[in-house]
């Protein structure tokens, strides 16, 4: 069980998302569960197609058809939100759950001034009049580090650089002071030199406000520096979730081990990077049992028939049969303190 | 931005000169104006005099320059057939065509955009699907058939609307309008529907597909993620982005409305420029034909200039003086 505070800000329970296509139903998320505590930063990592972005979209209720939530629950501060009518979940969006997308160049409407987009969002979620909303928008731009905000606020998106635009996007996501922010690869489209600044900015702003956030990325460096806990996803399932230090340093799940082994290290002797053989299965061809079993060097008979559930191993939880053997002398047992 | 407008203006002038050259060439290739004007019985001396008087002995570039200068001042010569100044013939017919074309364009734009937006928002609704199916018929039906069909239903069978002409008109200065009398308005209904229908279906299909495209973009997703109400996203955020490409294409269509007016005017015996042109072709009345050609070209150039201006007003990326930034 989760060892977080009594009521997590966001709690995802057995969330299943399916896409109904002509060639059958694809399961993009398969019984995903995790909690995010108040003020906590959760990292979500995994290969493309592992279900990272779908998880974010499902929490905020923005799964586009033909996709749909087929099972499970999303709880926001203990209240169920995945089954709310569209207009009510709409009111939560921006107000209590914010989202930052990957590409700041396309996240802003090119035909509207920054001021129009900010003031509109502020006024949708509050009773402020136009002048108050504008003052608030300027204050926000100042907070996200836009120089001379009272002048820049009336600019159009194309008049900002990529990094500045992502700052504007962050200001928009923070407009109504949400409790939880989903940042879906917020720096992938940016210059490497700007990436660290943007991540630091999101982190600082969230800490000041006590906002929790979920950082979706495949940049392990960012994960190691930024997040409190990390969830490793594979083929629409959570493979391992736990404190970032443990998961990065001593991953338990064979897939997580492979993933961390693939990170080049600057320290020590250069070693050959580990490569996981094969590739992630298509959603239409997920093998029975553990989804990772065809690529796993440690797979045994049970892995091919029975899907491993998340089981607690110390502070973390891992979905692997290796750790479900009370008397086993496997690698995992030694780590558990 | 000024440079952008100037460039559009220059392009317009180049187009007008090219069309003027074609209009000018018609005089040289379509019949001999001297014979046309004097008839078969004229003496050689009469012909020589007229040739001299018309300036036909001058070098071609000089004649062309004179033609352009005259045309720029609204002087298109004298109609072979009616013996009156072409400019006054055109001015007489202009109000009928302008009223028909402008009302058709407004009809096509307003209804086309409204239906297009509806079909995009209610993408899977049965009304939207019905509208789309009907629009396909609209695209493929020839204009005259729609006109004749309307006449059959509303003039012959139901006897609600007159089948031809403009009805009673009121003169305001040199302009005659059919908008102020009941019979004038009634007469406008069917020609406007006929002329506007094709454009309407095209605009509607264009709006629908552009809007569906825009609704899939990241900034719409982001607007949703910020909790902006769906109606507001559709009519404020998406519509504006939809209209930019629509206006470009629809602007050119507007020129087409004037050109297609020929068919509609013929079907409804509408006393406009199209009917004037059709008559002129029958009698090889070259000055009228060339003037009409210039008029249509002028309408196209004018609308595309207006489109460019509206474009600048709608798209801030053009206003910053670097058109390359707008994708």
Provide a descriptive summary of the structure in words.
The complex is a heterodimer of chains A (about 325) and B (about 325). Helices cover about 30% and strands about 20% of the residues of chain A. Chain A contains twelve helices and twelve strands. In chain A, the strands form two sheets. An eight-stranded mixed sheet of chain A has the order 6-7-8-3-9-10-12-11, with helices on both faces. In chain A, helix 8 links the parallel strand 7 and strand 8. Chain A starts with 9 loop residues before the first strand and ends with a helix. Mean pLDDT of chain A is about 85; it is low at about 1-5 and about 325-335. By secondary structure, chain B is mainly alpha-helical. Chain B has a domain at about 85-285: MetI-like fold (Orthogonal Bundle), CATH 1.10.3720.10. Helix content of chain B is about 75%, strand content about 0%. A two-stranded antiparallel sheet of chain B has the order 1-2. The chains are: A alpha/beta (about 325), B mainly alpha (about 325). The interface between A and B is medium-sized, with 33 and 24 residues.
H and E order of chain A: EEEHEEHEHHHHHEHEHEEHHEEH
The spatial strand order of the largest sheet of chain B comes to 1-2
Strand content of chain A: 15-25%
Classify the fold: give the CATH topology of the domain at 87-286 in chain B. Answer: MetI-like fold
Topology record:
The complex is a heterodimer of chains A (337) and B (327).
Chain A: E1 10-21, E2 24-36, E3 41-45, H1 52-59, E4 67-76, E5 79-80, H2 86-92, E6 97-100, H3 104-107, H4 114-125, H5 130-143, H6 149-152, H7 162-174, E7 180-184, H8 192-209, E8 212-216, H9 220-226, E9 229-234, E10 237-243, H10 244-249, H11 254-261, E11 311-313, E12 316-318, H12 331-335
Parallel strand pairs in A: 3-8, 3-9, 6-7, 7-8
Antiparallel strand pairs in A: 1-2, 1-4, 4-5, 9-10, 10-12, 11-12
Helix pairs in contact in A: 4-5, 5-7, 7-8
Chain B: H1 2-29, H2 33-38, H3 44-53, H4 60-72, H5 86-121, H6 126-140, H7 143-157, E1 170-172, E2 175-177, H8 182-215, H9 218-225, H10 230-267, H11 273-282, H12 286-314, H13 316-319
Antiparallel strand pairs in B: 1-2
